[in-house]
Design goal:
Blueprint (H helix, E strand, L loop, with lengths): L28 E6 L2 H13 L12 E6 L2 E7 L5 H14 L1 E3 L2 H11 L1 E4 L3 H8 L4
Antiparallel strand pairs: 1-3, 1-4, 2-3, 2-5
């Protein structure tokens, strides 16, 4: 019995280029997590009593959710000037935590979270829960 091996001619190898779809969208929402509702109330009162007390009135596109015993403030930042956003961000991180991947996390909050204030979350909190 004779066994022979046939060596194939040079195989043609096609190179396949893989292109990833890149989602090149800017974050249009900033999300901050507060451990307790009291922390959120303190933040709202701080904003109301801060040097520029009209700053919180500019945040009409803000929503408050509760999810897994935490409270999440979603602020639409597409129509806010940079200085206002910087002031809000610096104030917020004193009382809460900034959430990364905010666009993805916002979808999760919409689906699974409980909406407390649909719009104007900070102003509504100051109006309804004013402690100071």
């Amino acid at each position: 019995m004779t066994v022979t091996r046939i060596v194939p001619e040079k195989e043609q190898v096609k190179k396949v280029k893989v292109k990833r779809k890149s989602i090149n969208q800017k974050n249009s929402v900033a999300i901050y997590m507060f451990n307790t509702f009291e922390n959120y109330l303190e933040f709202c009162n701080y904003l109301k009593n801060s040097i520029n007390n009209n700053t919180y009135l500019k945040l009409k596109n803000s929503t408050l959710y509760s999810y897994n015993s935490k409270y999440y403030l979603c602020i639409n930042i597409s129509n806010i000037d940079f200085n206002t956003f910087k002031l809000i961000h610096c104030s917020t991180v004193e009382f809460g935590t900034h959430i990364t991947n905010s666009d993805i996390f916002e979808r999760k909050l919409i689906e699974y979270g409980n909406m407390i204030f649909k719009t104007n979350a900070i102003n509504n909190c100051v109006k309804h829960f004013n402690n100071k």
